Structures are given as structure tokens and as C-alpha cells.
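We were asked to recover a plausible sequence for a given structure. The inputs and outputs are reproduced exactly as logged, with field labels preserved.

PROBLEM: sequence recovery
POSITIONS: 94
GIVEN STRUCTURE:
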């Protein structure tokens, strides 16, 4: 389960950055392409985000995280590059 969480953390971080890239760069360069990419990228990111949060709850006790560590893991999903930090710091033994 931890390996799955590690994969989801990386995928969620990448999807977050791709979503930002689409919103900040592609929107300016090609508005039509932006509109066609927004739904699939947004849907993928949404599913990965929900998976990240649910899996964090599932493996919380297995990883023996304190409440503070669990809170940090959850907040990291809201920050760009946050899930990469979590993957390196809290999931390196997976």
C-alpha cells in the first residue's frame, strides 16, 4: 500500500504542475488548446488528489505518523512540489 501511495504522491505532484503549466503558459500561447486540455488534466489531477488524501488516511497508522506528521502530509498536497517533499522525507523506506 505504501508503494502505491508513493506512486500516487509523485503522480499527483506532476499533475498539479501540468495543471499550472496549462493555466499559466498554454492559456497565453494557445487559448483553444488550453480549453481542450483543461477538462482531462483537471479530472486526472482531481482523481489523483482524492486518491492521495484517502491513501494518506489508510496508511497513517501503518507508517506510525504523529498527528503533526499526518497534517504535514495532508497540507503538502495543496502546495506545488509538496508531494515530492513528502515522498522523499516520509516515504523513503517504502
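RECOVERED SEQUENCE:
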Amino acid at each position: 500500500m505504501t508503494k502505491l501511495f508513493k506512486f500516487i504522491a509523485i503522480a499527483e505532484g506532476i499533475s498539479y504542475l501540468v495543471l499550472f503549466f496549462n493555466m499559466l503558459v498554454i492559456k497565453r500561447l494557445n487559448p483553444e488548446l488550453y480549453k481542450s486540455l483543461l477538462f482531462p488534466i483537471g479530472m486526472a489531477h482531481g482523481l489523483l488528489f482524492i486518491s492521495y488524501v484517502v491513501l494518506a488516511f489508510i496508511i497513517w497508522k501503518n507508517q506510525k505518523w504523529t498527528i503533526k506528521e499526518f497534517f504535514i502530509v495532508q497540507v503538502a498536497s495543496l502546495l506545488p512540489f509538496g508531494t515530492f517533499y513528502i515522498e522523499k522525507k516520509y516515504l523513503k523506506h517504502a
